[in-house]
Amino acid sequence: MQGTRADIIRQVCARIEHIYTEPNERRNIALMAASTAEGVSLSKYLIEPTEQVDIPSLEAMVQHLAEGRPIQYIIGTTEFCGLEFTVKEGVLIPRPETEELVSWAIEKSKEFDRAKILDMCTGSGCIAISLARRVNNARVTAIELSSEALTIARQNNKILNTNVDFIEADVLGTLAVLGESKFDIIISNPPYIPRSEQAAMRINVTQYEPSMALFVEDEKPLLFYEAIATHALQRLHQGGYLLFEVHEDYASATAEMLQTRGFDEIELRKDFRDKPRMICCRLNQK
User: Fold this and answer.
1) C-alpha span between 202 and 92 (Å, rounded)
2) Structure confidence by residue, pLDDT tens digits, 178-204
3) How far apart are CA 105 and CA 242, in angstroms?
4) What gap in Å lies between CA 22 and CA 82, rounded to an integer?
5) Residue extents of the structural domains in the chain
6) CB burial readout 88-121, b (16+ within 10 A) else e
7) Is 226 exposed, middle or buried, given 0-12, 13-18 or 19+ CB atoms closer than 10 A?
8) 67 Cβ partners below 8 Å, 6+ apart?
9) What is the mean pLDDT of residues 164-181?
């Protein structure tokens, strides 16, 4: 592609408008693609928009974007909690709202000396690694069923110089692989989107991101929450915390389920979009 940087951004935006209908999101994706393809900082597009450039490699990137492939998979990285994570097909792309869940876990971790943390359904490892980086002396374990996602998580662990213990295991199983281990904090962003919502979602998600990390059957929307809550009853120290990212439509049902299981101090928080998306509760200290 040739032209001024401003012209190129307009061209890219026009090519992907059928998928990304929100103007700011579309422009941000165009900026990421163009600056990466040109090999310059994004600020160049903001400070020097009238400079003439020639970016031959951008055409192929835009073609992928127009087909629905997420920009994060195209460039191979995404930012989460101020860290750069490798992402590829086979692993869920971290979302900004999940950063709020991590911040809440950091807040709770201050109550423990050398907090022992378990991340269930870790995916790219973004939650576990962020906590390992930001909680002093934390001992972090993360489990994931997908061997493909675990490969990427372990790669991120090495690149970001953390010491998370990644384990291949199914949270719907017994988790015997954890032995007798107990934790101060258990955190999870599990699959929670009912399968019936898939048809209304954009193809950049449904055709590229891993289905097993996104969807649950409509008749069992709390499947993973119930399983993880059961594990937490056995795996949390008394007074330990369980934190979830949740579907906004099932937030209250999840809170009620946790109450019936015997958890205390159940708190539901809204995300930056003002939707109920996070829950924290505590294993009673009796």
Assistant:
1) 15
2) 999 999 999 999 999 999 999 999 999
3) 9
4) 24
5) 2-67, 90-283
6) bebbbbbbebbbbbbebbbebbeebeebbbbbbb
7) middle
8) none
9) 96
Residue 166 corresponds to which tokens in the numbers above? 């990644």
Which percentage of the chain shows pLDDT scores above 70? 99
Say whether pLDDT at 234 is over 90. yes
Residue type, 175: L
Joined together, the tokens standing for residue 252 give 């209250």
Looking at this protein, which amino acid is placed at residue 191? P
Mean of the pLDDT values across residues 140-165?
98
Which of 250, 257, 237, 240 is CA-nearest to residue 278? 250
The answer to whether residue 64 scores a pLDDT higher than 90 is: yes
Domain 90-283 sits in CATH 3.40.50.150:
yes
Q: Give the per-residue pLDDT at 284.
A: 84
Say what the pTM is.
Answer: 0.94
Per residue in 67-108, pLDDT (tens digit) is: 999 999 999 999 999 999 999 999 999 999 999 999 999 999
